[in-house]
Amino acid sequence: MGAMSWWHWAIVLVVLVVLFGSKKLPEAARGLGRSMRIFKSEIKEMQNDGKSDAEKATTDETPRQISPTPESDIKRDHQAERKSA
């Protein structure tokens, strides 16, 4: 019951020919194909936008590495504290 057999497809084809006519059926199929292509490209674009947003969120949350203070700066600060005390 779940799968469509060949006579189901035959009935669908007859109904389509009756509704659209044999001349407009290729145009309708072409239009449907274009619509599906546009829909798929929009879905891919949305997924790519979601990935780039997720990458931005993860890069913003990662802590930045603090560069070590050069030893000369530490000595200079220590000497300045001695002089002021």
Automatic annotation (TrEMBL):
<feature type="compositionally biased region" description="Basic and acidic residues">
    <location>
        <begin position="43"/>
        <end position="63"/>
    </location>
</feature>
<feature type="region of interest" description="Disordered">
    <location>
        <begin position="43"/>
        <end position="85"/>
    </location>
</feature>
<dbReference type="InterPro" id="IPR006312">
    <property type="entry name" value="TatA/E"/>
</dbReference>
<keyword id="KW-1133">Transmembrane helix</keyword>
<dbReference type="InterPro" id="IPR003369">
    <property type="entry name" value="TatA/B/E"/>
</dbReference>
<keyword id="KW-0813">Transport</keyword>
<protein>
    <recommendedName>
        <fullName>Sec-independent protein translocase protein TatA</fullName>
    </recommendedName>
</protein>
<comment type="similarity">
    <text>Belongs to the TatA/E family.</text>
</comment>
<dbReference type="GO" id="GO:0008320">
    <property type="term" value="F:protein transmembrane transporter activity"/>
</dbReference>
<comment type="subunit">
    <text>The Tat system comprises two distinct complexes: a TatABC complex, containing multiple copies of TatA, TatB and TatC subunits, and a separate TatA complex, containing only TatA subunits. Substrates initially bind to the TatABC complex, which probably triggers association of the separate TatA complex to form the active translocon.</text>
</comment>
<keyword id="KW-0472">Membrane</keyword>
<keyword id="KW-0811">Translocation</keyword>
<comment type="function">
    <text>Part of the twin-arginine translocation (Tat) system that transports large folded proteins containing a characteristic twin-arginine motif in their signal peptide across membranes. TatA could form the protein-conducting channel of the Tat system.</text>
</comment>
<keyword id="KW-1003">Cell membrane</keyword>
<dbReference type="GO" id="GO:0033281">
    <property type="term" value="C:TAT protein transport complex"/>
</dbReference>
<feature type="compositionally biased region" description="Basic and acidic residues">
    <location>
        <begin position="72"/>
        <end position="85"/>
    </location>
</feature>
<keyword id="KW-0653">Protein transport</keyword>
<keyword id="KW-0812">Transmembrane</keyword>
<dbReference type="Pfam" id="PF02416">
    <property type="entry name" value="TatA_B_E"/>
</dbReference>
<dbReference type="GO" id="GO:0043953">
    <property type="term" value="P:protein transport by the Tat complex"/>
</dbReference>
<feature type="transmembrane region" description="Helical">
    <location>
        <begin position="6"/>
        <end position="22"/>
    </location>
</feature>
